[in-house]
């Protein structure tokens, strides 16, 4: 018996899948959906006007097409005068499920990478004041550069791993992964109560304080101890 999909035709070719490099391998990780947790470091929550003591985790999404594997040259997006950087640990899933325990969430992780959640901050501020969605502030083209993945079976970032971002050689963001309010397995377990997690999902796990604007010509270096660095230039 066949599914019938073999006979399907499309009016134009479907978009090619987005693939992330895996450190030391020729295989690629196929990106499915992209979720991001907001205000997951106490100091960043405070600088963005949140209350880290009482806030439950909340999530927003980027389209897979916003992911730029390996960074490189990134266009300055239209419709903004305030493009901000946010360095993050990115978790990539090889399996999924609903209502996962923390241990099951850890087992679902394929690997980790450095990512940057680029944000049109002025559009986000307007959306917040107006009670509108954040989509155009967070999910625009090339808004999610991600470095090479390191499989969790080979090496897993520890809580004391540093997370930093430099712009033109100047340190802008600095913290440790242990400063997360919701740890990756907790975030994944919570997210799995909202959607069924699937292989190929990426989760951006939040950013430390120090987010700020970048302009055309700026060179960004994002690093997490034990993972390949991510380098980008805003064009």
Instruction: Tell me, briefly, the overall form.
Output: globular
Give, in spatial order, the strands making up the sheet with the most strands: 4-3-15-8-9-12
Spans with pLDDT under 50 lasting ≥5 residues? none
Q: Please bin the fraction of helical residues.
A: 10-25%
Largest sheet: 6 strands, mixed
Total beta-strand segments: 18
**N-C termini distance:** 52 Å
The number of helical elements comes to: 5
User: What is the average of the pLDDT values?
Assistant: 94
Order of helices and strands: EEEHEEEEEHEEHHEEEEHEEEE
Describe this entry's structure for a reader.
- The chain has 235 residues and is of the alpha+beta class.
- The protein is built from five helices and 18 strands.
- It has helices at residues 42-47, 102-108, 121-130, 135-138, 184-191; strands at 19-21, 28-30, 34-37, 59-62, 67-69, 72-74, 83-85, 87-93, 109-116, 119-120, 144-146, 150-151, 162-167, 170-176, 202-204, 212-214, 219-224, 230-234.
- It has a six-stranded mixed β-sheet. It has a five-stranded mixed β-sheet with strand order 6-18-17-13-14, with no helix packed on it. A three-stranded antiparallel β-sheet has the order 10-7-16.
- β13 and β14 form a beta hairpin.
- The longest helix is centred in the middle third of the chain and has 10 residues, at 121-130.
- It is globular, with a radius of gyration of 18 Å.
- It starts with 18 loop residues before the first strand and ends with a strand.
- The mean pLDDT is 94.
């Amino acid at each position: 018996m066949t599914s019938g999909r073999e006979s399907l035709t499309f009016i134009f070719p479907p978009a090619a899948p987005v693939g992330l490099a895996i450190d030391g391998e020729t295989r690629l990780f196929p990106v499915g959906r992209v979720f991001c947790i907001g205000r997951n470091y106490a100091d960043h929550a405070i600088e963005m006007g949140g209350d880290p003591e009482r806030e439950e985790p909340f999530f927003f999404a980027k389209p897979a097409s916003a992911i730029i594997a390996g960074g490189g040259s990134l266009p300055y997006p239209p419709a903004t005068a305030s493009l901000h950087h946010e360095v993050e640990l990115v978790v990539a899933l090889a399996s999924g499920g609903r209502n996962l325990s923390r241990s099951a969430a850890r087992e679902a992780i394929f690997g980790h990478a450095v990512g940057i959640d680029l944000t049109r901050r002025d559009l986000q501020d307007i959306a917040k004041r107006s009670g509108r969605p954040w989509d155009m502030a967070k999910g625009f083209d090339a808004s999610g550069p991600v470095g090479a993945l390191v499989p969790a079976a080979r090496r897993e970032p520890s809580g004391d791993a540093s997370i930093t971002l430099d712009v033109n050689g100047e340190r802008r963001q600095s913290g440790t992964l242990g400063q997360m309010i919701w740890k990756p397995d907790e975030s994944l377990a919570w997210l799995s109560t909202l959607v069924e997690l699937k292989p190929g999902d990426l989760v951006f796990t939040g950013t430390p304080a120090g987010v700020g604007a970048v302009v055309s010509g700026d060179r960004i270096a994002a690093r997490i101890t034990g993972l390949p660095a991510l380098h980008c230039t805003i064009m």
